[in-house]
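Audit log entry. Action: structure prediction of a protein-small molecule complex. Ligand: NAP. The ligand was supplied as SMILES and no pocket hint was given, so placement is left entirely to the predictor. Protonation state taken as written. Sequence taken verbatim from the request; no trimming, no tag removal. Recorded inputs:
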Amino acid sequence: MPFKFKLIVAACENNGIAKNKKLPWTIPSETSYYLRMTGEVKDKTKKNVVIVGRKTFEESPWKPHPDCINFVLSRSGLDVSQYPDTYAFKSLDEAIAKLNDEEFKKEYEDSWVIGGNGVYKEVYGTEHFYRVYFTRVFHPYDCDTFFPKMPETVKLVEDPRVPQGIIEDAGHKYIVHVYENINFKE
Ligand SMILES: NC(=O)c1ccc[n+]([C@@H]2O[C@H](COP(=O)([O-])OP(=O)(O)OC[C@H]3O[C@@H](n4cnc5c(N)ncnc54)[C@H](OP(=O)(O)O)[C@@H]3O)[C@@H](O)[C@H]2O)c1
């Protein structure tokens, strides 16, 4: 069975995800949900992998992403030796090869794709593209980086682990939708 890439993103009404390399909003409960989903494992001897573009990794408040094995993508190469649980890859294919490694498979449970734009887009085209955990923030913030349009092959599904309904927090309103790629083959 191929491993499953689960994408997770928070986008505002114009699908914006960042402005000047920063999130345009601060929503504590949404951040907690994001860290819970990416960090949660059933088998406590394992961790989840997060796949992240170099810019998102560099701008993140967490290096490495908490409780996860970090796969940072950078074509120009990146020295990540100072960060625990962190690997750098020059292509998505290299990262996929590591995720398919039989020995490494014993170390991880889920593989979460945490952006940014080009990483999400490239993952849509792989056989591993399984789900998008999509938070819609109800405000059209001014953004310069956007979530790429999802393929036509996704349908809405339920996942009881995500917040249900419209949530209000810190002056913001948001909702979490989960989309599944109908072409994903177990
Ligand atoms: N709202 C959200 O949910 C959300 C999610 C993710 C990110 N963001 C925000 O978005 C901003 C940055 O996003 P971004 O789209 O501009 O950048 P990004 O995807 O984080 O990083 C782009 C860089 O990643 C590397 N890269 C991407 N695809 C690669 C591949 N297939 N193989 C090898 N390297 C690859 C390249 O690094 P090199 O230049 O080193 O070669 C590329 O310049 C961040 O500031 C973050 O805050 C928001």
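Audit: result stored. The first strand starts at residue 5 and ends at 12. The CA atoms of residues 48 and 68 lie 5 Å apart.
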